Description:
Distance between the termini: 80 Å
Order of helices and strands: HHHH
Number of strands: 0
Radius of gyration: 27 Å
Largest sheet: none
Number of helices: 4
Shape: rod-shaped
Number of domains: 2
Oligomer: single chain
Amino acid sequence: xxxxxxxxxxxxxxxxxxxxxxxxxxxxxxxxxxxxxxxxxxxxxxxxxxxxxxxxxxxxxxxxxxxxxxxxxxxxxxxxxxxxxxxxxxxxxxxxxxxxxxxxxxxxxx
Length: 110
């Protein structure tokens, strides 16, 4: 990881995966890193940024893997499979309830 001089640069290093703690993908944030200090009119000091950078860096300084379309497709595929399984569960439950209701109607008519 390169030396980080601003909180915005540190956030960019984190989002790009260069700190090694996450995949390279931007995280939406309601209050991005450093916003509180800057809003108070006191930007974070170089020492505070260096401390935050050290805390965010994976031991060994290796970069995390980048997100890929293949990863996204795998995640989407798993979600689709869960939805499909849920549909079969609901359909199966309705069929069983229908068979029970039909059996009860036949038994009550006898």
